[in-house]
């Protein structure tokens, strides 16, 4: 698989603050790569470097094989960049705004209207086509920002927290647009602090902490690294307290927690077969409704990999 974004030993310092320190990672073509990290971790700095808006102090960054420092004019037609807060000409209509950028990107005049209409349709702005930007909701302005990014049909999208500040419905709608772009084969680098959002959207992630990359790879591998214990959630028809006491006497169990509806059972790390738990419950006359392994969340992986959970 070809590499769309390649970063090697990237460094950027602001006065006495190391915003990015020896950063190296790859994003392959067609990936939706989630960029995670607390505020000040270096996500925006990295994205601005990739967008040719900021020069690194050292290291290299390439987009589709082009160096962002030495060949910025080759990079810019290939990318769509959406900053974390982007202004718009509020006294323009949506269609006028997009036609202006189509002209700026030198889209031929005979294709310009079709390109704008396609971007409006893809981002769900058909009903707002002739609306003033000033009257758009934040969610609609975010859609407009995405539409602007698509005007030049970029191969790589660099999106800095595109769902920030949106209500749940608008956030879901933006996610649907990004999934559609991924299905079209676009490479997407997206930063966010909403971890659950990236869990369902991205196929790979990178975690930044203090300007350093602490993890880059698949979400499944990140979750596996965070799994430091095996915990079962068991629902019984009744007699949860009795079941808990019985299991503690069974052996091979670290801890039991009894709730009103769920019996929590923690097993030693590395336990591969927990069927003995269900067998013990059934053998002692308890009616088991459900038994499942507790899910490890992306939040758990983030805390584990950054050391914040210590």
Strands across the major sheet, in which order? Answer: 6-7-8-3-9-10
Residue share in helix: 25-40%
Form type: elongated
Biggest sheet architecture = 6 strands, mixed
Termini, distance in Å? 37 Å
Total of domains: 2
Name of the CATH superfamily of the largest domain: P-loop containing nucleotide triphosphate hydrolases
Question: Helix segment count?
Answer: 11
Q: From the 3D coordinates, which CATH architecture of the largest domain would you assign?
A: 3-Layer(aba) Sandwich
Low-confidence stretches: none
Strand content: 25-35%
| Rg, Å, rounded | 24 Å
Series of secondary-structure elements, N-terminal to C-terminal: EEEHEEHEHHHEHEHEEHEHEEHEH
Under CATH at level 1, the class of the largest domain stands as Alpha Beta
CATH topology of the largest domain: Rossmann fold
Task: Give the total of beta strands.
Answer: 14
The secondary structure category is: alpha/beta
Helix and strand topology:
Layout: E1 3-14, E2 17-28, E3 32-36, H1 43-50, E4 58-63, E5 66-67, H2 72-75, E6 79-82, H3 94-104, H4 109-122, H5 138-150, E7 156-160, H6 168-183, E8 187-191, H7 195-201, E9 204-209, E10 212-218, H8 219-226, E11 230-236, H9 240-250, E12 255-258, E13 263-267, H10 275-283, E14 288-293, H11 298-306
Parallel strand pairs: 3-8, 3-9, 6-7, 7-8
Antiparallel strand pairs: 1-2, 1-4, 4-5, 9-10, 11-13, 11-14, 12-13
Helix pairs in contact: 3-4, 4-5, 8-11
């Amino acid at each position: 698989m070809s590499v769309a974004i390649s970063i090697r030993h990237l460094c950027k310092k602001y006065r006495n603050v190391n915003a990015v320190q020896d950063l190296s990672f790859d994003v392959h073509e067609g990936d939706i790569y989630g960029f995670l990290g607390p505020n000040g971790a270096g996500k925006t700095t990295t994205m601005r470097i990739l967008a040719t808006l900021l020069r690194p102090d050292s290291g290299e960054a390439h987009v589709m094989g082009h160096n962002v420092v030495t060949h910025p004019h080759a990079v810019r037609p290939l990318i769509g960049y959406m900053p974390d807060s982007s202004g718009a000409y509020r006294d323009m209509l949506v269609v006028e705004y997009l036609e202006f950028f189509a002209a700026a990107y030198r889209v031929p005049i005979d294709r310009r209207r079709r390109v704008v209409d396609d971007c409006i349709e893809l981002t769900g702005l058909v009903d707002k086509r002739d609306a003033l930007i000033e009257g758009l909701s934040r969610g609609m302005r975010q859609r407009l920002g995405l539409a602007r990014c698509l005007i030049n049909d970029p191969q790589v999208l660099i999106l800095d927290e595109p769902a920030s500040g949106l209500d749940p419905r608008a956030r879901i709608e933006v996610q649907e647009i990004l999934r559609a772009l991924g299905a079209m084969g676009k490479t997407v680098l997206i930063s966010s602090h909403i971890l659950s959002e990236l869990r369902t959207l991205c196929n790979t992630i990178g975690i930044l902490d203090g300007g350093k990359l602490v993890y880059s790879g698949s979400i499944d591998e990140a979750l596996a690294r965070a799994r430091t214990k095996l915990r079962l959630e068991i629902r019984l028809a009744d007699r949860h307290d009795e079941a808990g006491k019985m299991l503690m006497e069974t052996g091979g169990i670290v801890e039991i927690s009894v709730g009103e509806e769920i019996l929590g059972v923690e097993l030693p790390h590395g336990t591969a077969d927990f069927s003995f738990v269900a067998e013990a419950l059934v053998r002692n006359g308890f009616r088991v409704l459900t038994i499942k392994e507790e899910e490890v969340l992306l939040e758990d992986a983030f805390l584990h990999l950054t050391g914040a959970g210590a």
